[in-house]
Amino acid sequence: MTVLLRAALVIGVLSYFAMLRTGADPAAEARRLAGAVPSAQAVVPSALEAVPPETRERAVRAVLARGLMAELSRRAAEAPSNDTLQETDRQPAWRGADPESDPQSDPKSDLRTGPR
């Protein structure tokens, strides 16, 4: 790809220098060439008429389907979360558990005090 870009750049520069060497004004030459190209408003309707109706219809369906898929994927990305965790559940307890909110453990139910 870079080879093609370099080639286009070299050809463009050489053409520009050739116009300067012959004494032609590059800006006037560009305006002359731009005037020879018809505007898009004149070309597009005739180009659309040249396309067969069934091909035009298939193209319209493809564009609409692509747009519909883009809209559906955008809506799917915005789907509400089914997560049941609350915001406080997601935050780590950096300073340990709060001893006042923890129930006192019963020594009889402690597994470490059982027989060995």
List the helices and strands and how they pair.
Elements: H1 2-22, H2 26-36, H3 40-50, H4 53-77, H5 87-90
Features:
5 helices, mainly alpha, elongated, 116 residues
Write down the secondary-structure element order.
HHHHH
The proportion of residues in beta strands is under 5%
Helix vs. strand class: mainly alpha
How would you characterize the largest beta sheet? none
Number of strands: 0
Assembly type of the chains comes to: single chain
Provide the residue-averaged pLDDT.
78
Shape, per Cα inertia axes: elongated
How does this model look, in words?
The longest helix is centred in the middle third of the chain and has 25 residues, at 53-77. The mean pLDDT is 78. With 116 residues, this protein is mostly helical. The chain is built from 5 helices and no strands. It is elongated, with a radius of gyration of 37 Å. The chain has helices spanning 2-22, 26-36, 40-50, 53-77, 87-90.
